[in-house]
Structure formats: structure tokens, C-alpha cells
Amino acid sequence: MMGIRLLSGDHLAALLELEATAGSGMQPAALASALTAPDRKVLSAWQAADKQRTSQPIGYAIVAIGPFDAEIEAMGVRPDWRRQGVARWLMQAVIEEVTQADSERLLLDVRETNDPAIRLYQTFGFTFDGRRKGYYPAVGDTAGRRRVDALLMSRAMKD
Ligand SMILES: CC(C)(COP(=O)(O)OP(=O)(O)OC[C@H]1O[C@@H](n2cnc3c(N)ncnc32)[C@H](O)[C@@H]1OP(=O)(O)O)[C@@H](O)C(=O)NCCC(=O)NCCS
Questions:
Q1: Residue 8, SS3 per DSSP
Q2: Which of 22, 25, 80, 146 has the most CB atoms around its CB within 10 Å?
Q3: Residue 66 C-alpha to ligand 1 middle, in angstroms?
Q4: In Å, what is the CA distance from 7 to each residue of 10, 14, 40, 61, 64?
Q5: Residues 137-154: tens digit of each pLDDT
Q6: What is the pLDDT of residues 78-113, one digit of tens each?
Q7: Residue 126 C-alpha to ligand 1 middle, in angstroms?
Q8: Angstrom distances, CA of residue 69 to CA of 5, 45, 46, 59, 63
Q9: Which residue's CA is the closest to the ligand 1 atom numbered 28?
């Protein structure tokens, strides 16, 4: 059983712990500010409590709602919960939020090497708009010399 919750400033410790394993690449300061920013929604997927385990967050997404477009800023799922539909649940919840906000488009950018995320986004109807060359540092390149392109993707929210 799984549920979706909107997180607030009270959930910073849980969100930092989740990001440490989910690895969406958000910095702690950005997570803290997203929890209190009026134009951002932080959605978290929770595994419901059962006899063996207490309820715990297993994935999250951050969406920024702008005047016309909305943008997914982060999406991450704990490794031990991947390929079980958690990101699918989160994406459905994001789309509901963005529909309620009356946004025209939902945007995101993704490392060109991140096949799981690209496939997830394509499943939800996102298409490619362009590319930002060398936008991201390569994963594990602490010297910051190798860079990876960002692919820009979007999905229309209205006909
Ligand atoms: C990308 C990510 C969020 C997907 O989460 P998930 O909960 O495993 O995804 P789901 O189980 O809901 O999968 C939904 C669909 O996405 C695609 N997908 C997800 N993981 C995939 C993989 N490893 N390989 C290929 N396709 C994949 C599939 O189309 C999948 O549908 P299917 O299982 O019916 O084939 C997860 O791998 C993750 O947290 N990665 C690290 C953080 C990250 O890269 N975030 C995105 C950029 S910020």
C-alpha cells in the first residue's frame, strides 16, 4: 500500500534522509527552501505502515508552479523501491497538482545519460524540446571537468 502526501517545513529531516538515498541531485538548501516556497509543491510517496514496519517516505517529487508553465525540479525513489510504480504514482500526483494550477505546460530537464528517467517521462507523454550542452557535472566527477548535456522535455497540459 502506498500513499501520497504534500510535505511542509516540518518534514525537512525526512526529506533530507530520503534524498540521501533517492539521489535526485537536489542540494539540502534547495530542499529546505522548496518546503516553504509558496510556488513549490513537494510531494512524497509513503509506504503505509504495517505490522512489521512504520510508515516511511520512499520517493518524492518537487514541482514549481509558474504563472504559465510548471516545472518538475526533482524526482527520486529509494533504490530498494524502484521499478514498483512509485515514480508513476508521484508523476500522477504532480499532474493533478499542475492541472489544478491551470498550467499550460509541464517542463523538466534531465541528464541525457539518465535512461530510466527519460523512459518514465516519455511514458507520461513528455517530448524533447532541445538540449543544453554541458549543463550538468558528470556523476562522480568531483573535479568538475566532465560535463553532461541536459535534455529539455515538456508535456502540454491543455489542448
Ligand atoms: C527515475 C526514477 C525516479 C524512476 O522511479 P521508479 O519508481 O523506479 O519508476 P517506476 O517503477 O514508477 O517506473 C515507471 C516507468 O518508468 C520507466 N522506467 C523506470 N525505471 C526504469 C529503468 N531502470 N529502465 C527503463 N525504464 C525505466 C519504465 O517505463 C517504467 O514503466 P514499467 O515499469 O511499466 O516498464 C528512479 O530510477 C530514480 O529515483 N532514479 C534516481 C534519481 C533520478 O534520476 N531522478 C530523475 C532525474 S532528477
A1: coil
A2: 22
A3: 26
A4: 8, 10, 10, 10, 14
A5: 887 767 767 899 999 999
A6: 999 999 999 999 999 999 999 999 999 999 999 999
A7: 14
A8: 23, 24, 27, 24, 11
A9: 120
Helical spans, DSSP H, in 3-157: 12-22, 28-36, 86-100, 115-123
CA distances from 45 to 61, 90, 118, 157 (A): 9, 7, 20, 23
Q: Is the CB of 79 under 6 A from ligand 1?
A: no
pLDDT mean over 42-67: 88
Q: What is the DSSP letter of 38?
A: T
Contact in structure between 101 and 62 (CB atoms under 8 Å): no
Please report how many Cα atoms fall inside a 13 Å half-sphere around the Cα of residue 46, on the Cβ side. 17
